Amino acid sequence: MDGIGRVKAVRLIFAATLAASTMIGPAWGWGRLGHRVAGKIAEDRLTPAARAAVRDLLGPGESLADVSTWADEVRRDRPESGPWHYVNVPISEPKYDRKFEPKEGCVVVKVEDFRKILADPRKSRAERQEALKFLAHFVQDMHQPVHVGHRDDRGGNDLQVQFFGQGSNLHRVWDSGLFDQVNRPEKEWVEALSKTITPELAAEWSRGGPVDWADESLAIARKAYRNPFTQNELKKGARLGQEYEDANLPLAERRLAQAGVRLAWVLNTIFP
Ligand SMILES: [Zn+2]
After folding, report:
1. What is the pLDDT of residues 129-186, one digit of tens each?
2. Residues with beta carbon < 5 A to ion ligand 1?
3. Cα separation of 218 and 89, whole Å?
């Protein structure tokens, strides 16, 4: 390759890399911020025994917040794990039902599976370490309403909307869009949400299991698909703005707080 050819090739590779890194693919769960915030809320609520067990399983200096995004990072290398991040329940359904579990697994089944592996002392350290990372992520994912309810649109990924004048889709709005409208660093999100968790609420949330939590997400997903003002179902190209943000940010915030409280509760129960 001559000099000019090489420069062109380098430019081409650079452009391709840039395109790949900025490309908007299907969204995969709470964004990085949401996962980390829920992970930190959980970490702050661990009992000393659970904290020691978690610290022992994770790498040196690695926190629960750090590993909360791991399952999204390995998704390409672990294609079998793709369907584990969500479950498709039509929003017209009154409740979650086992009939919606595909044979390749779903988020409800995997929360149960990985909890069992983590709690099983006969499993290898590597298996339990991985189970902890998957469990943390999937407890968080299943609190994202459109990871449970959908309307034949891959959990809102195929429902294109305008959010504050920017092209987006409903899934992305719930993953990160609602939070991104608030200009607040991670640490302040953790503080703000932690303040809302009273001992009464924590006790109320620390019960049930993934099936109950899926029912809650389904109920919120029904609201997510409606214009909060007219109550009409959202159509492709819907223009969502402050009204939608005001109606739904409190719900999204509560889901993150619940995910944190419940992850801590599950871990505290596993490591008494
Ligand atoms: Zn995910």
Report:
1. 999 999 999 999 999 999 999 999 999 999 999 999 999 999 999 999 999 999 899 9
2. 28-29, 72, 85, 141
3. 8
